[in-house]
Amino acid sequence: MSNQDDSILEALSLAVAARIPVLLWGPPGTGKSSAVAAMSEALDIPHEVVIASIREPSDFGGLPVVDGDDVKFAPPRWARRLAEAGTGVLFLDEISTAPPAVQAALLRVVLERVVGDLVLPQNIAIVAAANPPDQAADGWDLSAPLANRFCHLDWQVDPTVVATGLVAGFKTPDVPQLSKGWQDQLPVTAALVGGFLAVRRSLVIAPPDERALAGRAWPSPRTWEMVARLLAAARAVDASMEARRNLVIGSVGDGAGLEFLTWLEELDLPDPESALKDPESVDFPDRGDRLYAALSAVAGAVAANPTPERWLAGWRVLERAAGHAPDVGAMAARVLAQVRPSGMSAPREAAIFVPVLKAAGLLE
Question: What is the pTM of this model?
């Protein structure tokens, strides 16, 4: 069951579908555990609950076992069950009450899906739940390295949803089935993130000064990559703007997230596919950051399907839009250079970008 509003459920389901680790923050007794259990049941996949606060570091790092001249680190039963199933949800409950040594042992589990000497399948979704420190039993602040591995969602209680759910039943998160080609959206969303960070370089990595805030979402190269993947998944299923907002802020925090979302709203970029079909018919923005994002999106679209025709069209777009400012198109030119179809030679439109690529160290 869940007493949560639709946008948080939608954000949770997208993170699970994209296999991005997600951490639900909320008071005890608000349905976090039951929502994850119901979601797993609806997907008909295994659901393993591990209460982090009562575990030892060896429960995640593996128990050392002497095997002849070697020492192996044996994984626990829950990890073996997930590995045998090949899919499922690992639910790490009460993660904020886990002591620092256990949190340290969780680092590889969350990021690399490694438990002892066992590597869990990539199809395993990782969801965690935490109570705010002032509401947790013997709570600890979440360590900054562990916090930076999650998309953080605030699990707030909606009294109206609770009242209705008690009578009519609570909603089960509806996890979307991402199509096989959903990651084709990734070059475009990565280009948008890259365009923003080219302007706001100080936000590439910005750990909070306060220890308590470091235990929540904050910007780093890892979390910006998470933003790109989550937005690609959101684009693939046409997710709501509120769900996208929750995912962005949940990955990089309020300040960086809101600034990025505002920047996105003001972009008004041309459609990269339209630009590739007819470069002469598209109006490109004049402002440097917007042009950078637009050209990166075009290069990303070509990289997703680099046929000879699309590759040549990409160079025509770059030459037309950035011929007067080749430095703005340098990164997009590098992408096109890297995805050159076999047997194709660089067209004349590429010549203008060669000096700036060499000067920037982007071309050998």
Answer: 0.83
